[in-house]
Amino acid sequence: MAKNTSSNVFRTLDVDQYNxxxxxxxNDSTDPAALGPNDTxxxxxxxxNKPVEALTHLLSGATLGIKDQAxxxxxxxxxxxxxxxxxxxxxxxxxxxxxxxxxxxxxxxIYRGFEVPNEGSSAHLLVWHEKVFTVSGVGSIxxxxxxxxxx
Amino acid sequence: MAAAVQKFGPGGPIQxxxxxxxxxxxxxxxxxxxxxxxxxxxxxxxxxxxxLDQHDLRVxxxxxxxVSGRIVTCSQDRNAYVWVKEQNGTWRHTLVLLRxxxxxxxxxxxxxxxxxxxxxxxxIISICYFEEENDWWVAKHIKRxxxxxxxxxxxxxxxxxxxxxxxxFKVRVFSAYIKDIEQKPAATEWGAKxxxxxxxxxxxxxxxxxxxxxxxxxxxxxxxxxxxxHDSSIVVADAGMAMMKLKTxxxxxxxxxxxxxxSILAAGHDCVPIVFRVDPSGKISDxxxxxxxxxxxxxxxxxxxxxxxxxxxxxxELLDSKLATTHQNQITEIRILRGSKSQAEAVSxxxxxxxLCIWHLRDLATTFEDLKL
Lengths: 151, 373
Known about the structure:
Oligomer: heterodimer
Number of helices of chain B: 2
Radius of gyration of chain A: 20 Å
Structural class of chain A: mainly alpha
Helix content of chain A: 55-70%
Number of helices of chain A: 7
Largest sheet of chain A: none
Largest sheet of chain B: 4 strands, antiparallel
Structural class of chain B: mainly beta
Strand content of chain B: over 45%
Strand order of the largest sheet of chain B: 1-28-27-26
Order of helices and strands of chain B: EEEEEEEEEEEEEEEEEEEEEEEEEHEEEH
Radius of gyration of chain B: 21 Å
Shape of chain B: globular
Largest interface: A-B, 18 and 21 residues
Order of helices and strands of chain A: HHHHHHH
């Protein structure tokens, strides 16, 4: 008895997978080649001082539910660049141009941006959050929390 | 403004309720294992006439059949009981063996009241009907392709098709045709062949996941179904698999019902019923609440001592935790009180604050011009 009580290797065993009632999710394969928005296009738009268009491209092209962590981080970095590039005064127009689907995706990016704060990013994101919230209301925040496919 | 607000005794949140056929009696459960039956006395009074306490765990669903007068209740103790009122006014219960190994979540009588459907956490829907020869209720199971808890069921007017919403973010339409007790149904828009447990249609709430389905409702003609999900959305779909989804700006809705061929009433965590209009192509327009936000009284000349005391104790000057709506907690169920799904005139709502409110839709239609019913 004394020998195996000190070992806690058993704690790493996932017993739930052996339960026959286990809910297995639909494995939708997101084609890795059809990845996110076009990086070069967005970077060129940012350089050409057209951040609002870059935002539209970013949101329409964003794919949700990608499993690859590196791809997700890359897409987040790109999104942060675009969001920071748009000045506070331009945010209202930018949000008004988006449709409901894109606003939901934007809200998801905003919350992901909150998770990895850089210098001064959170303050700017808070302004974004407030502007999107006035248009989309609590519903968009609920969708950030309930949608299984994260951005 | 809700026409009538009623609190029943000291009880807690009301999980579910059902009206008798004459609307003089109501059966409800205060989030515990008993079902209380209250009878209306006089103009405003309600008297408790019976307490149906056979269940061992929390009662999750109650339904009262209008024609036969039978009540069916289901509970987390994996049982369902059918209650029949005797001549002397007491209720006699019959246990229904659902043969499930998890809690039952919802129950509904079929339109002709010869069977009822029980959804459960065992990933099974039990369709129960009465077998004359053995004098007991028999349950048949719908198992495939259900993979998760059923949260809500609703019958099609033809007494055969059943819509079920589940926690795997999908709504499915099944056939619940029992050949022992009924004729073969005619073909509908949902399909012609309807053997028992046949999956007629399956709808996914959202491509991005979508949240649990909280409530589903067939329209009065059975051509369309509406459901609400936890992603704050309301969806209308029809037999041709066309799905129109509206992502609302409100908090998630918990219960939904059709009140006319072109409008839906839904309510949930926002504590107020909301009406959505559906145009013939199925497009849902933004909802309008049934009551305006009541201005919560903030005293202008606040008592100075109270203000500082609150600031010290709670951190804010005024205690303003009262909501600006009639209900103070999420609305758990809407029932049509007068009228039917094709023309509802009054609905009742119960909520987590223990109140039952009655809303007269006709009067409200005149108050709000944009609330066209």
